[in-house]
Amino acid sequence: MRRKNYISRYLQELIPVAFELETAQEFQTMGTGPAQFKIKLNREIPKKELLKSTSLALGEAYIRGDIELDRDLYEVLDMFLGQMDHFRLNPTALYGLLHSSLTEKNQQQEVSFHYDIGNDFYRLWLDETMSYSCGYFKNSEDTLFEAQVAKVDHILKKLNLEMGMTLLDIGCGWGFLLMRAARRYGVKGVGITLSEEQYQHFSREIREQNLEDRLEVRRMDYRELEKSDMQFDRVVSVGMIEHVGRGNYERFLKNAVDVLKPGGLFLLHFISAQKEHAGDPFIRKYIFPGGVIPSLREMVNLLPEYELRTLDVESLRRHYTKTLLCWRKNFQRHKETLATERGEEFVRMWELYLASCAAAFHQGIVDLHQILMSKGVNNELPMVRAK
Fold first, then answer.
1. Cα gap 257→251, rounded to integer Å
2. In angstroms, rounded to a whole number, what is the distance separating the alpha carbons of residues 172 and 115?
3. Which of 52, 160, 194, 335 is most buried, with most CB under 10 Å away?
């Protein structure tokens, strides 16, 4: 009985609205006013797990089916993720999970864990561009495809590209940004990635679209750039620094700067946090091993040390909420097939990831920033933001 009372109090501290809680022993209404949803606990969640990490304990219980909800998952998460300051976390008990190795070998394995699940899997719920980062919804009725194309165009305009320029994409994904840059601006580009699946896909696209004379993709760690003897007019990195890890940010910036020509532009597009933290235990264990979200202030604070001058900073937070909800909607269309192929727990894990991230962006737990920088002073750029 004591444990049941504990979980009741535990959940009530986290959830700021009235809700119903059903266990094998009892049915209760928590809070005041009409209940917004019902939580059914099919199995007890150990108190020691709840004390170790709220997100990990509740996340694993949801994956196993120990938690059932009578309302849409995103809607429920959106009601209480704003309370994440009240989540329990025992850093000592989770030290190994929250502080993984920053070596090349380990980070290669971490990247493969997430991105090498299979191109067919990502193709099910991403759009035709295979863009796995925040879209840019210029109009409320834009499709996911239109938003992803607009995002890439938004970045390329900020880079102020001209015919014949060279462009490096650090963490190039499946290659859409570089292919669009080559076709629209006539630039020559190199993309680097640690993912074998992304490398194979992008290599095939380059051949099939006859872009061999303009584009190249390499399986390469960013730490190899400083010794590569390559030089570029422009550098871009979209959604990659989250895999670098706190402690390697300076090395990442140094490598980017070493291959950037004087006066060249560097655009960094990344998920950001208001304050520095080690990362979410559930996300690090099941989705992005080693993933750390930098704060905006820690990134901006480092730039002057590497000759980088800040030209433009833009938040796209609400665009990422909408992007994630589009991904989740696409994902839901294939749940039965995925459950057959990969198991019910895999499906529940990925849907929880997509829904919780959408709620986290909506509640401002995380943000999305683009920082445009120049290497040294550049007086040749337009004096207003690109339209």
1. 10
2. 12
3. 194
